[in-house]
Amino acid sequence: MSETTYDVVIVGGGAAGLSAALVLTRSRRRVAVVDAGMPRNAPAAHMHGFLSRDGMPPLDLLSVGREEVAGYGGELVDDRATTAERIEGEPGFTVRLTGGRTLRTRRLLVTSGLRDELPPIPGLLERWGRDVLHCPYCHGHEVADQPLGLMGMAEPGPVSRSVHLALMLPQWSRDLVFFPNTLDLSDIDRERITARGVRIMDGKVSGLTIAEDRLHTVDLTDGSSVARSALFVVAAMIPDNAVLDALGCEIGHQGFVSTDPNGQTSVPGVWAAGNVVDPRMQVITAAGTAAAVAIAINTDLMADDCDPH
C-alpha cells in the first residue's frame, strides 16, 4: 500500500474512539480519528461514574482526549464517515467521508455509538439531559430524594426496561410516579411495582409543563398533571452502524453489531467498540473496553508485520 495508508482509521471520536486512539498512537501506529462532533452525551452538563473525572463536563473530557491523541501524532478528522469498503486485491479498506475525502487503512475500528430516539412528546427533547433523563447510574444521585417520574414505552422482546427502571429507581427516591404510557403492564409487574412503593398513573403522556426553566409537571391526555422535578424516559437506542452495514458485518440483537471478545466483527480487519456494540456501556466502560480492543488490533497488525508473505 502507499505511504499515505493509515494503520488504523477510527470512526467515531467519543470516549471509546479516543481511548483506542491513545493506546494505538502510543504504540506508534499511524491513526486517524474521524468524528462528526455529535456525542450522545453532549446535552448533559456533567458526566458521572468515571473514576477521577466524576462531575466533569463530557465535552471537556473529549477536548482533553483530543489533545492527548494529537500530542502522540494522531490525526483528528472533523467529518462524518458515510461508508467503507474493502480495497480489491489488498488487505485494507477505504473510508469515504461526507466532505469528499477518502482514507485508506489497514484496519478499521468503528466506535460511532448510538442515538437516543425519544417519543414525539412536546418537551422531551428540549429537556433531554437536563431534567429529562435516561440512566439512574448517570443522573440518579443528582436528583435523589426529589419527586421523580418514569415514562415507560412498549418494547419488543420479553425484557421490559420500563419495568426494570420502575423497580430500580426507588433506590434514589421513594417519591416515584410511573407513567406506563404505551406499555401494557401485566398484573404481575403491576403488583411488583406497587410493592416497591411506586405510584402508577395510567394513561398516555401528552407533554411537559416547564416553569422558570425547570420541569414543573408531567401532563396526561386526560387533562391531569403530576408535579415532578425530573422525568426518566425509556428511549429507543439506535446504533450508528451505517459503516458496519456497508461492510457486511453481522448484526445481532436489536440491531447492534456482533463481535468476538476482542471486539472483532465478522469481517476480518474490522473491529467495533463502545455503544455501537453495547448500549449499556457508560463512558468509563466504553473507554476501557476500547482500550482493550486497541491492544487486540495492535497485536493483529504486529502479526501482519511479521508475516514474511
From TrEMBL:
Extract the GO molecular function terms from the UniProt entry.
thioredoxin-disulfide reductase (NADPH) activity
Q: Where does the record place the FAD/NAD(P)-binding domain? A: 6-136, 185-289
Is Oxidoreductase given among the entry's keywords?
A: yes
Question: Which keywords belong to this entry?
Answer: Flavoprotein, Oxidoreductase
Query: Is-annotated flag, keyword Flavoprotein?
Result: yes
Enumerate the catalysed reactions.
[thioredoxin]-dithiol + NADP(+) = [thioredoxin]-disulfide + NADPH + H(+)
Query: Which top-level group of life is the source organism from?
Result: Bacteria
**InterPro entries attached to this UniProt entry:** FAD/NAD-bd_sf, FAD/NAD-binding_dom, Ferredoxin-NADP_redctase_2
What is the protein's given name?
A: NAD(P)/FAD-dependent oxidoreductase
Origin species:
Nocardia uniformis
Organism placement in taxonomy:
Bacteria, Bacillati, Actinomycetota, Actinomycetes, Mycobacteriales
